[in-house]
């Protein structure tokens, strides 16, 4: 029996709430689909593989993430959309534009480097099958989110990215600190989701649509009796995403979560988790709520100033001899960096000439160097599980390449030469604030950049000091004490190949970006929507 031919005129006249007959652009949705498919494959394979062969799951996951990253190449034109309304082909739920592609490169690249850092962890501590499934599932949601163009898909992608992350944080069985971190992360994220859903429901009630472009059009002419409802919806939606981005005062979960989580998971949250929150914030403000720029613009400007100040002030207070003080400092540093990322978004509310690409360019720089810093931290943690800043003293004497790489990453984060890409990215963000007339915010940012120099340079200096027990007089040999003889072999342990590869990849990427910063900074001068 053959199917009757479909009349195109009937399809064109089909109501939006009726049967939607359309094709799916599988190439456009390939990156998140590949990550999700590999996640399911890993979960099933884990049931049949003996314990001795569980490492296969790690390399299958790495290969899957690399394939998802390569799937972005055919989409580089940035003009693919799918899941569009039949009556309005220009209104789509999934759009692979230049903004989505840039964030997907960040997400998938960050997940791939996290996977390399995790190979040894799953071999020694973490349950392999569960870990790789959760990491890939979270990555699939994070890759879906930047291409989402309706609030329903946006919230679903946000939760697909977040829910597995709770389990990843608490996956270290028997570790009380890990369990507490997972619980704090879960409770704060659930609260953020509830607030976001309440805001979305108010926006839908005021506009009658969930598509971002349609919301922007409807909000231009909201009936007077629904004006307060629309404003409340916009405000609540922003508060929900502020939780996800760790903007102060919604940042309280960050330090304990990073410290309690396995180190690769902390690295993942600091880059991919942050990218998810900022992507959602960009989409709802710039795409969906431009009519309410007078509401979210000042709010984000204040949040940016508060976030960078709180993050940098807390980082200054970190004691170098405290257990896991290196991770805690990176956690507070990520809060401070979140403040810089908020600046161009806030500036976009004040001037139509401000390109949101400044946030994208800064996020790409931050992702590379922050993952590099966590990669070196993972390397040091193999011989110093406490991972104190004091444990990095004399790292140049034992691991010169790792010390030089970490020093370069810290200088990039500080915005000092030779970390040229960090310097240029900060200048772009600073210029966005000035061009928008936010002089006070530019001053706050400048002060915070100077404050941050102290703790970044203090950590950098520790790397090149003489190791404990050694004399600092030039030309004299290091005393060979019993303690030195006992610890020297441990310090010379060979670095695991995946961890060494992660350090090398991030170092090379940071060097290339510092040599050719236009590869990233071009986003700052390009309209991504």
UniProtKB/TrEMBL annotation:
InterPro entries named among the record's database cross-references: NADH-Q_OxRdtase_suN/2 (IPR010096), ND/Mrp_TM (IPR001750)
Q: Where is the NADH:quinone oxidoreductase/Mrp antiporter transmembrane domain?
A: 148-449
Q: How does it sit in the membrane?
A: Multi-pass membrane protein
What Gene Ontology molecular function terms does this protein carry? NADH dehydrogenase (quinone) (non-electrogenic) activity; NADH dehydrogenase (ubiquinone) activity; quinone binding
The first-level EC class reads translocase
Q: Oligomeric state and partners?
A: NDH-1 is composed of 14 different subunits. Subunits NuoA, H, J, K, L, M, N constitute the membrane sector of the complex.
Q: Which residues form a coiled coil?
A: none
Q: Which GO terms describe its cellular component?
A: endomembrane system; plasma membrane
Q: What is its EC number?
A: 7.1.1.-
Per the UniProt record, the lineage of the source organism begins with:
Bacteria, Bacillati, Actinomycetota, Actinomycetes, Kitasatosporales
Where is the protein found, in the record's own terms? Answer: Cell membrane; Endomembrane system; Membrane
Q: Which UniProt keywords apply?
A: Cell membrane, Membrane, NAD, Oxidoreductase, Quinone, Translocase, Transmembrane, Transmembrane helix, Transport
Reactions mediated catalytically: a quinone + NADH + 5 H(+)(in) = a quinol + NAD(+) + 4 H(+)(out)
Q: Looking at the keywords, is Ligase present? A: no
Can you cite a GO biological process for this protein? ATP synthesis coupled electron transport
Source organism per entry reads: Streptomyces rubrolavendulae
By sequence similarity, the record places it as follows:
Belongs to the complex I subunit 2 family.
Show the stretches that span the lipid bilayer: 28-49, 56-75, 99-119, 131-148, 154-171, 183-206, 226-253, 265-289, 295-317, 329-350, 362-381, 401-425, 437-457, 499-519
Q: Please identify the protein, giving its name as recorded.
A: NADH-quinone oxidoreductase subunit N
Where is it predominantly found?
membrane
């Amino acid at each position: 029996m053959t199917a009757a031919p479909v009349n195109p005129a009937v399809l064109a006249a089909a109501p939006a709430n009726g049967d939607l007959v359309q094709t799916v652009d599988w190439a456009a949705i390939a990156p998140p689909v590949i990550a999700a498919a590999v996640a399911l494959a890993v979960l099933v394979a884990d049931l049949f593989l003996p314990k001795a062969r569980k490492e296969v799951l790690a390399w299958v996951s790495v290969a899957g993430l690399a394939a998802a990253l390569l799937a972005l190449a055919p989409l580089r034109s940035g003009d693919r959309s799918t899941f569009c309304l039949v009556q309005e082909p220009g209104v789509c739920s999934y759009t692979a534009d230049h903004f989505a592609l840039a964030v997907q490169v960040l997400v998938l690249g960050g997940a791939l480097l996290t996977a390399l850092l995790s190979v040894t962890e799953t071999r020694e501590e973490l349950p392999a099958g569960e870990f790789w499934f959760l990491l890939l599932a979270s990555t699939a949601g994070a890759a879906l989110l930047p291409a989402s163009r309706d609030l329903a898909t946006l919230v679903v992608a946000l939760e697909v990215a977040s829910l597995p992350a709770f389990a990843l944080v608490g996956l270290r069985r028997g570790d009380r600190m890990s369990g507490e971190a997972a619980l704090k992360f879960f409770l704060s994220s659930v609260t953020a989701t509830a607030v976001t859903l309440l805001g979305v429901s108010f926006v839908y009630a005021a506009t009658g649509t969930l598509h971002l472009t349609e919301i922007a059009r409807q909000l231009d002419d909201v009936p007077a009796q629904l004006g307060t409802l629309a404003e409340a919806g916009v405000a609540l939606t922003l508060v929900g995403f502020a939780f996800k981005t760790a903007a102060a005062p919604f940042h309280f979960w960050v330090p304990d979560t990073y410290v309690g989580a396995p180190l690769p998971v902390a690295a993942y949250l600091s880059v991919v988790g942050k990218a998810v929150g900022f992507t959602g914030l960009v989409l709802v403000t710039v795409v969906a709520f431009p009519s309410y720029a007078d509401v979210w613009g000042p709010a984000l400007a204040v949040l940016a100033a508060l976030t960078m100040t709180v993050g940098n002030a807390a980082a200054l207070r970190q004691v170098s001899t405290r257990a896991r003080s290196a991770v805690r400092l990176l956690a507070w540093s990520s809060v401070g960096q979140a403040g810089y990322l908020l600046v161009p978004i806030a500036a976009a509310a004040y001037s139509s000439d401000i390109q949101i690409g400044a946030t994208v360019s800064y996020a790409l720089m931050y992702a590379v160097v922050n993952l590099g810093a966590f990669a070196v931290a993972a390397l040091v943690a193999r011989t110093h599980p406490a991972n104190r800043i004091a444990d990095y003293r004399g790292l140049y004497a034992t691991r010169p390449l790792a010390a030089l790489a970490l020093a370069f990453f810290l200088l990039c984060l500080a915005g000092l030469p030779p970390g040229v890409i960090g310097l240029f990215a900060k200048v772009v963000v600073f210029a966005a604030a000035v061009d928008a007339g936010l002089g006070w915010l530019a001053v706050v940012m400048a002060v915070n950049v100077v404050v941050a120099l102290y703790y970044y340079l203090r950590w950098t200096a520790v790397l090149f000091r003489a190791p404990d027990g050694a004399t600092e007089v030039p030309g004299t040999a290091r005393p060979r004490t019993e303690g030195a003889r006992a610890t020297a072999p441990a310090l010379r342990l060979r670095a695991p190949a995946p961890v060494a590869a992660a350090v090398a990849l991030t170092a090379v990427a940071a060097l290339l970006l510092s040599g050719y910063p236009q590869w990233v900074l071009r986003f700052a001068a390009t309209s991504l929507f």
